[in-house]
């Protein structure tokens, strides 16, 4: 059995993936899981990527625009963003988010 089954969040470095988006990133063989804290008002520009993305709000409210449709996402809502679809977002309040990407985000692998 792999001895690295249980790990500590405190051992994961914080990376600023976009201005104001502070992340702790975990990679598995098939996915990237991004735990994000973002202060109200910070936004991520419109972008797209090859990865399928599942986005969850754990705390707060986040305005998410996917393929031109805007919605406020909170703890009762989540988004399933298909590959190559344009999307952007803005923190309405201080937020804690989790994004799950498949396949692995190679651009999020930092040494």
Describe this structure as you would to a colleague.
The protein is an all-beta fold and 111 residues long. The protein is 0% helix and 52% strand. The protein starts with 14 loop residues before the first strand and ends in a 9-residue tail after the last strand. A 6-stranded antiparallel sheet has the order 1-2-3-10-5-8, with no helix packed on it. Strands 4-9-6-7 form a 4-stranded antiparallel sheet, with no helix packed on it. Strand 2 and strand 3 form a beta hairpin. The protein is built from no helices and 10 strands.
Report the radius of gyration as a whole number of Å.
Answer: 14 Å
Indicate the structural class.
mainly beta
Largest sheet: 6 strands, antiparallel
| Sequence of strands across the biggest β-sheet | 1-2-3-10-5-8
Please bin the fraction of helical residues: under 10%
Kindly state the number of beta strands: 10
Q: Note the total helix count.
A: 0
Write the layout of secondary structure elements.
Layout: E1 15-18, E2 21-27, E3 32-38, E4 43-47, E5 52-59, E6 62-66, E7 69-73, E8 78-81, E9 87-91, E10 95-102
Antiparallel strand pairs: 1-2, 2-3, 3-10, 4-9, 5-8, 5-10, 6-7, 6-9
Short description:
With 111 residues, the protein is mainly β.
